[in-house]
Amino acid sequence: MSREDDALVPASPTLAGLRRHTAARVALGRAGSALPTAAHLKFTLDHARARDAVWSAIDKDRLLAELEARGFRTAIAASLAGDRATYVRRPDLGRRIAPEQGEELARTLGPCRVVVVVADGLSAAAVDANVLPALDALAPRLVQDGNPIDAVVVVEQGRVAVGDPIGAALKAELVIVLIGERPGLTSADSLGCYITYRPREGLADSARNCISNIRPDGLPPADAAFKIAWLAREALRRELSGIDLKEESGAELEAAARAATMVLGGD
């Protein structure tokens, strides 16, 4: 190998400028045929954070206390995946709850129109970091639209579709699932949202609307809340969700901005 092959080659200044705009691994340079030490150590750290996100548990006691302090009616449930190892290996069990749990939820919470299900998913870190900011931004918007949250159910070892049997047990018209997404190597704390009209077991994923990457460095919770509330309102108004409901909240936001600009211009 030549001395040139062993040399530390920094990224060109032109490419390095891209790093101001993205957390993606671009323009890292090289040390011989490998990454520079700092970039390699950062990759190792991010990989460890992603693994920890998958195998960690949510702090359910703190989460329930915070939810109840905000005035939400709450309950806790668990999927049929009894532990984390089973959850990772058996996605089907993470989508279901025991029949007796559904009956208990029906007794304690009663019929609900709009239900939020908080599930650990594949990132407990996402739930711990982003669920409360998301709900703080979302709840007032739903109230303003006449669609208040009737209950929040926290689910351990839950997949996206676990909202279906829970929503069905509570006779919900709409279920909003907030769940930790599969962590990436630059986003171990990304929260996803799935909205389903008239949930019931056996629904295909095409029956849901998804908003992904909810976190301060992705889609900020306040912006996500605007989109979620729009979808919730339209799902209930049109009585559908999924591929038949296109997310067009941006057009509404632009119209509001134009109206505000006209008012300001008139002053």
Provide the fold topology.
Elements: H1 3-6, E1 8-9, H2 13-16, E2 30-31, H3 37-55, H4 60-69, E3 74-78, H5 84-89, H6 99-109, E4 114-119, H7 124-144, E5 151-156, H8 163-169, E6 174-180, E7 191-197, E8 208-214, H9 221-238, H10 249-266
Parallel strand pairs: 3-5, 4-5, 4-6
Antiparallel strand pairs: 1-2, 6-7, 7-8
Helix pairs in contact: 6-8, 7-9
Describe the fold and architecture.
This protein is of the alpha/beta class and 267 residues long. The protein has two domains: 9-54, no CATH class; 58-248, Rossmann fold, CATH 3.40.50. It is 44% helix and 16% strand. It is built from ten helices and eight strands. It has helices spanning 3-6, 13-16, 37-55, 60-69, 84-89, 99-109, 124-144, 163-169, 221-238, 249-266; strands spanning 8-9, 30-31, 74-78, 114-119, 151-156, 174-180, 191-197, 208-214. The strands form two sheets. A six-stranded mixed beta sheet has the order 3-5-4-6-7-8, sandwiched between helices. Helix 6 packs across helix 8 (163-169) and helix 7 (124-144) crosses helix 9 (221-238). The longest helix has 21 residues, at 124-144. The chain is globular, with a radius of gyration of 22 Å.
